[in-house]
UniProtKB/TrEMBL annotation:
It is a multi-pass membrane protein. Keywords: Cell inner membrane, Cell membrane, Membrane, Sugar transport, Transmembrane, Transmembrane helix, Transport. Coiled coil: none annotated. The lineage of its organism: Bacteria, Bacillati, Actinomycetota, Actinomycetes, Mycobacteriales. Part of the binding-protein-dependent transport system for D-xylose. Probably responsible for the translocation of the substrate across the membrane. It is found in: Cell membrane. It comes from the Bacteria. It comes from Nocardia pseudobrasiliensis. GO terms for cellular component: plasma membrane. GO terms for molecular function: transmembrane transporter activity. The keyword Cell inner membrane applies. The chain crosses the membrane at residues 31-48, 60-79, 110-130, 136-156, 197-222, 242-264, 276-309, 321-341. Pfam families: BPD_transp_2. This is Xylose transport system permease protein XylH.
Amino acid sequence: MSVATTVSQPAPSKPEPGPSLLNRMIVRPEIGSALGALVVFLFFSIITDRFLSALGVATWLDDASTLGIMAVAVAMLMIGGEFDLSAGVMTASTALVTALLAVHAGWNVWLALLVSLLFALAVGALNGWVVMRTGLPSFIVTLGTFLALQGLNLGVTRLITGTVQVSGIRSAPGYSSAGWVFASTTNIGDARIQASVVWWIVLTAIAALVLVRTRFGNWIFAVGGSLVSARAVGVPAVRTKILLFMTTAFAGWVVGSCNILRFASVQANQGVGLEFQYIIAAVVGGCLLTGGFGSVIGAAIGALIFGMARQGIVFARWDSDWFMLFLGVLLLSAVLVNNAFKKRAERVRR
């Protein structure tokens, strides 16, 4: 007589629950800047009526746009573990090259823009190559570039024009079409939205896609997190960092082009000191000073906070000197919050 035996099967294991909504939010570097932007927006919306008017919204978007273009590029570079202190003066250098060629050499504006773009990309590539070739900190290398460009701007402009300003580009051939691309306005109701705002949105979207959806974006996080480890797994570190410096220079060209075609004049010392605001906006947006962590969307939001706060102070009729106090408190708070968020994100990912 045979006896049937049955083998008990182990009960299917329950799938592990996914991370909670809170944990998914914590791992996003831009969450802190988004909360900060909401607070600033609500605060100035309550204390002043002009802040939410069509003119008010257009004003603080315009204020934030050129800062946002640069902050996005600087954020990508910081995620890659580097700094560019020549970013501010680059906006003036490219504008001066365009203006001098178009006004004093009689070139078509589009050709002058092309030459200024090539100039910017060459300087960015040189910065990246020197940093990777010598191993010097990018802080020192780009500080040297900053001083060199500032001296070049002043010396060449004074030599050609006898002053430290170039103006008159509106009479140059090709200005109308170039001005439409870089300096036109779009009416939305009573608001006049500048072309720089469109450039800001488009470049932020492109940078965000590159950073989180492409192999190059993975390389940026890798070289910023650990250069030695990135090289060990085959990441082209030299190429990646050179391209990041060129990206920052390209953003400087965009901002310089928007400024010269909109205002039709440029000062040789324009942009000096703004490089620190770009870095602060990136830090407020979630970038760590040590690299390997951050968000370009967060950097764009950080620039938005700048624009809202700077114009909100004006609308509230406060002394504008308070804005520097706001920047100092904002930077310190952002560094503390970013470190806390990064530690929490590392625990969540484990």
